Amino acid sequence: MKALAASRRHRLAPVILMTLALFLTGAVYAALAPSSAQANSASADDIEEGRRLFITNCSTCHGMDAEGSDTVPSLIGVGAASVHFQVITGRMPMDADAPQAGAKPPQFNDEQARQLAAYVATLGPGPGIPGEDVVDPELGNAAEGMQLFRTNCAMCHNFVGAGGALSNGKYAPALDDSTPIEIYEAMITGPQSMPVFNNANLNEEDKRNIIAFLISQREPNPGGFNLGSIGSVSEGVWAFLVGFGLLIGAAVWIGARSS
Hints:
This protein is mainly α. It has 13 helices and 2 strands. The protein has a two-stranded antiparallel sheet with strand order 1-2. This is Cytochrome bc1 complex cytochrome c subunit.
């Protein structure tokens, strides 16, 4: 016991313990980090074309090595899914500096977006682009997705995905036109002010259920006119205008009858 206690007090003990802790942390990260399947499945020609597209269209801001700057984020380790989402939704390249990059018609087609994503994925491990079966809403449960969405997403995106305002000029976009793959990629990459929902928060089945719920909201509303699906604000305005309009009309009619 005395020998063990003496070894713990050795001046090199903290260094050895720190080295072991770093080694263990690296091993755990390597085991649990998102895979970069997109980069591995892409051909050398696609990666080279992605590099050419990057140098031509992205390096002005992100740098030739994608390391970013004081005002522009590094792309090393963001993964293929992040690049594909930003490019295919038209958020990148940005038109102008703003608090948030808004969606617009994309500058690149899907093949070019995947080539860009494949190249960036070679710079460091990160979330890969999901397969079609992973994002297929037909395989999801919309009822369970509704519960998950309203627990994790509704406070920003509205309870049916209609979007909403945030602080400092930012906003949670409406999800009416988002494709299943875009919704999934947003959940695993956390663009803008959105948090990342990894498999510890929402597993693949949970994400697919959320996608199924959002797609189901695009069907005709069985209750009739949805008033924009923005909740009590539009309903209150409608009740105010119709209610007070009827009251004013009734008062005018009564006054006309009594005169």
